[in-house]
């Protein structure tokens, strides 16, 4: 009979605690939205499980969090947590444990977050039965029209320009979000004995 691998009881307890913490953050943010204040904490418990233990703990933290959210809020919110926050948490834990520089971890996390945003558009479109991306494009088109008129131009933005602006906005917003996640992780995780790589010197000097 094949023996199961030994698991430290502390790993199981900490993983369960971190998963419940993430679920609670997600739950509180849903009913009492505080902008990016709580959202930037979503990936950190999963990443912390990786830093303190291993990949198995991180994946288990993500799975348990998704199960808790499925019970508390339904499978829709559970899926919205997994993509992108859960995957970003596991990825950041992997990268930070291997001392990846911020340029690498920020870029990879931004790509995952942007793909996750695209997934959210598709997912919500299927749930609502409407093309959410088209609705967003209409809103962006109206904003660009207003912006061009503000600068005295009467030209209408073409479709390629609108699409490029929309995609660029997704990338920039995800980059800003991941930068906040990195900054909070750098400040908080270092104080609890699980430091991540230091930011670039120029950024560290700005924060000093």
TrEMBL record:
Xref: InterPro entries:
DUF2232 (IPR018710)
What domain of life does the native source organism fall in? Bacteria
Q: Which Pfam families match?
A: DUF2232
Q: Which UniProt keywords apply?
A: Membrane, Transmembrane, Transmembrane helix
Membrane-spanning parts? 12-32, 53-73, 108-127, 133-152, 164-189
Q: Which residues form the signal peptide?
A: none
What name is this protein filed under? DUF2232 domain-containing protein
